[in-house]
Amino acid sequence: MIKCKICQKYDIYDQGLCKYCYDVRFYLREIIDDYFKGPYSDDDIVNALGNFSWIYAGYPRFWGYYNAIINTIYHFIMNIDKDYITENDLQYFEFTKVDKRDILIILFESKTLETPKPGLTNTIFKAGKLTQILVKKIRNELITDKHDESNRKRFKKAATEMFGIVSIILTYILMEKKFEDPKNQWLPRKALSVFLTLVHIILKHYNDPEIPKEFSRDLLDEQHSVLKITRDGRLRIMLEMLGLTYITPGKTNIISNVDKDQKSLMLNDEMILLLERLRERRRARVRTRNR
Ligand SMILES: [Zn+2]
């Protein structure tokens, strides 16, 4: 039996993926599509995005990609009079070891930049849909002479959203790359271990009235084993989720606390709402498939 192209552990369920990786891809896509609805996106999804902001920080292999997206959005936030960016503006390419072509593809696929029409050799790129949404949300709160509590709140929310949605989009793109070229592409294992855990929680409580706060620490550990994450890597992920690193100082992510025996992890309220929303989407998918 051929194994899943992503985790390479479980048997194939559909389209080259096991049922867990298939669900990860489905949920990532749902979150991204929803975010691109801009003002019409689902608050329960948008409010939870900040929980994913830490995933690529200090992760050398993909940091170049992540930074390129953030810096490009930053360029558009700060340059009010410009709706384009030139190749020259994209100077930070020099600071990463990643291939420039690769970075441009990531900027197009993430919709940070608009994909140029085929055949054109562009040196000027327009802001993509992701950038347009984020610029609108962030700019008004940041570039202003009046700055009060409500600006501060909206700015914080929009900035947190930005770091979270970029993690989600990048995970989706990297998963697709790995799928298309399993031999040469790298899997974002840290991100995937988190999303696989969430998939298992939804499946486990698929028919329960509510998704409970508590889940077993072993569940996360199992995903780390599936993806062959080292002991050091596992510890770091746990510390980052608990808000015990300089990347996440005092801010817990996804979970809010650990029980006394350190065997159970507690999801935070934003995550429970997100998982319940995603579970609804998945139920709707099953209904369409069975029709
Ligand atoms: Zn899989």
What percentage of the residues does DSSP assign to strands (E)?
Answer: 5-15%
Mean pLDDT: 92
What is the rounded Rg? Answer: 19 Å
Largest sheet: 3 strands, antiparallel
Distance between the termini: 29 Å
Listing every helix as H and every strand as E from the N terminus to the C terminus, the arrangement reads HHHEHEHHHEHHEEH
The quaternary state of the protein chains shown equals: single chain
Going across the biggest sheet, name each strand in turn. 3-5-4
Bound molecules: zinc ion
Question: How many runs of DSSP E, i.e. beta strands?
Answer: 5
Low-confidence stretches are none
In DSSP terms (H or I, runs of 4 or more residues), the helix count works out at 10
Q: How would you describe the shape?
A: globular
What class do helices, strands and sheet pairing give? mainly alpha
Q: Domain count, please report it.
A: 2
Helix content: 40-55%
Describe the protein in words.
The chain has helices at 19-35, 43-46, 60-78, 100-109, 129-142, 149-180, 189-204, 217-226, 231-241, 269-290, and strands at residues 84-86, 124-126, 214-216, 255-258, 264-267. With 291 residues, the protein is mainly α. The chain has two domains: 19-34 and 186-289, no CATH class; 60-180, no CATH class. The strands form two sheets. A three-stranded antiparallel β-sheet has the order 3-5-4. Strands 1-2 form a two-stranded antiparallel ribbon. Helix 1 (19-35) packs across helix 7 (189-204) and helix 5 (129-142) packs antiparallel against helix 6 (149-180). The two termini are 29 Å apart. The model has no long low-confidence stretch (mean pLDDT 92). The chain binds zinc ion.
